[in-house]
């Protein structure tokens, strides 16, 4: 973990750069908005810690009613459980015996559930749970259109659920039904159609499972781009939203954009001004994920982040825009929040122009 | 820093994934090849630590004759100096007083040089050197075609060099002339033309500086894609090569590819096999930089890394290729080595199918 780039009380311009900035007013507004929306819709929220990677953020979400956290990785589950999060769903398959042993060990200090999409996976989880003397809830992941992991809805799902339910150290935890592809479909019509189809498949599976005597404690899915749609279906009972706490440039390109404020920024510094049309900042592709597009420049008319190399970002200035000075700070909106957060050790929380807090990104790099 | 994914002696299949693997035979062959090539050409090597971010690798390079290291960031300079590297060039502009104070402080334990491309930058460096009571060599960065930082070769370069030489706590360190754009030009003709032009501009500046009484202790540039060209010009006296130690898929697309072996891999695990044509591994875009293209699958005929999401990699299997099994290991060649290394805390060094060593990636995330 690298040294923090700021101290509480410091004005923003004194923060060492690149730094990951959290606008606390916007962040808290986002937490509140999701909590109210879910309450109004009568569904639970189990936010995804793959976005924030921080027990601090997890506890703030749970203080507003979230029932626990989702993670994608065993290492993330460990860091949350060690940080006092009592209820964790690994919304992902875990198949390696060594990882399953770690997860089963965690079940002594937190409720830990995970997903499976293969009989061999279920058997491996059962073996690990037996070795550790714990009981693990296992959800069946179904493919509702994301075309990644998960079983195609149908008889195989019933068979796998039965296998889980009849495993001595497992309980059937429900269905994992995340439509990842729908999150960044640009129009509401596309997203509505995708989630309608996902909900129809999921709902039918819930019914089919009921007919063989298996209830679904969790029917989980949804993301920041579609949560209102899943919440309204009556099929999903848990929303696994992640990005809503921060937002990013790519979610901003949805129509309409999700009802959240941009709270996450990368603060950069102008380090070279080679000519009147160009300024170079100290945040390149090691500081900002570019997989979903380049970052946006925040509230600087006519200035565009035009290219990233490893440690440099090239800004272009439209004719007539006010020039950037050497050592000036520039705020950037990350193209994609989750992997950008994963580049930093610290959130620098700011309010009213000053640093209010530093929170460690404890699960940064926790990929194992 | 996250727990190491392996222990010395372990067979490769027991390494926890995703893990960053270093094939030690290939890596050492790369170190040796560069050392001989530079010796034969009569130029110094000052490898770039922005690639490897490790004092361990730096010392192995210096044991083979490298004169020191390049870095892009003050934090990288700190970690190398604290790790015993005695001669460090920040091949980049540093303009913020707080960063310059850190760099000047380092000059008590290592030789530390840096670059400037603006009079205000030179004045800020002079102020920091004066405050710390040290003397810092400063190179002028010139733009030889990369169109990023640096002055256009010409009278401004002479003026800035004079300003450095006449600053009481600075010495003129020479020219920084890196043609970054040429590194990944695909044909030898393109690269040859780019470096010929860069060398012509640089050589003329060296001459012009000599006429005003300023010698260039360092004339630095070159990268893994073009180092043989710069080495042959007689203009450059230091090669700032980085990627040659590891190589990556993007350098592999050059014609001809640089004369080095692929030594860097990401080891991943199959976590889902949804159908006969698809397998999903546990290494996605948090585990692998995708800015220069997707990773390649190593030595698995017919298997392609077709898509990355945050924590998942989707492999497609051509008809007739042998199926991938759940929990099977798959080696991936990163698309771009530098930012991929920056995702990991540990190199897992392997030889003859076993883990031989673990080296910390000490400057991982050292962006400040």
Largest interface by residue count?
A-B, 67 and 67 residues
> Major sheet of chain A: size, sense and barrel closure?
9 strands, mixed
Instruction: Give me the count of strands of chain A.
Output: 17
In terms of quaternary structure, the protein is homodimer
Topology:
Two copies of one chain form a homodimer.
Chain A: E1 19-23, H1 24-41, E2 44-45, H2 49-52, H3 55-63, E3 69-71, H4 74-82, E4 87-93, H5 97-106, E5 111-116, H6 119-132, E6 136-141, H7 155-165, E7 170-176, H8 188-211, E8 218-221, H9 227-233, E9 238-239, H10 249-252, E10 264-275, E11 278-281, E12 296-297, E13 303-308, E14 313-317, E15 329-333, H11 337-341, E16 346-351, E17 354-360
Parallel strand pairs in A: 1-16, 2-9, 3-4, 4-5, 5-6, 6-7, 7-8, 8-9
Antiparallel strand pairs in A: 1-10, 10-11, 10-15, 11-14, 12-15, 13-14, 16-17
Helix pairs in contact in A: 4-5, 5-6
